[in-house]
Design goal:
By secondary structure, the protein is an alpha/beta fold. The chain contains 5 helices and 6 strands.
Length: about 170
């Protein structure tokens, strides 16, 4: 199994790379930030997912992947609110660029899209589960919902093997 982790230099990306490597996966990491690969990355590529050339080069430079764990995103809600166009460029258009390019190179790869529980908005019932209606309340949440909806469209048409995760806020060491 060979995983590409976008957003590999981030809080979750670093831990995911190390975890996958400990499980015997070959791991390639990509991020716009950081020059040193996180533990577990066999290959490391600096990549701006908003740049088509960077994304094509990324997928050309690493061995074929069986899984894409797409974590790359603008995630800080106050930054997203200050510049909703930039967050849409990264979170929506960047996601499209990475997934479309992957489908050209390896259409059978599984995409694990990391969305956000923030797309649920204020809870209508507790506990929140997958049946809860989505009602994004900020630019970040709207961008994650838009990218998720686009990925689901490809999945529903049979073009994309997709798993969507909607994590709630999480913290920890590091």
């Amino acid at each position: 199994m060979h995983a590409l982790v976008t957003g590999a230099a981030g809080f979750v990306g670093q831990r995911l790379c190390a975890h996958l490597a400990c499980q015997g996966w070959n791991v390639s990491g990509a991020d716009i930030y950081g020059t040193l690969p996180p533990p577990g990355c066999a290959e490391w590529v600096n990549c701006d997912i908003t740049n088509r050339g960077d994304v094509v080069k990324l997928l050309d430079d690493i061995p074929p992947v069986t899984h894409l764990f797409h974590l790359a995103a603008v995630t800080f809600v106050p930054d997203a609110e200050k510049n909703p166009k930039a967050v849409s460029q990264v979170n929506v258009n960047g996601t499209r660029r990475v997934v479309e390019t992957l489908l050209k190179v390896n259409p059978s790869a599984r995409v694990v899209y990391i969305s956000s529980a923030d797309i649920y908005g204020p809870p209508r019932f507790l506990p929140i589960d997958e049946t809860h209606p989505v009602q994004p309340q900020n630019a970040y949440a709207r961008s994650k919902e838009q990218a998720e909806t686009w990925c689901r469209g490809l999945h529903n048409s049979g073009k994309l093997d997709l798993v969507v995760l909607r994590p709630f806020n999480h913290t920890g060491p590091g």
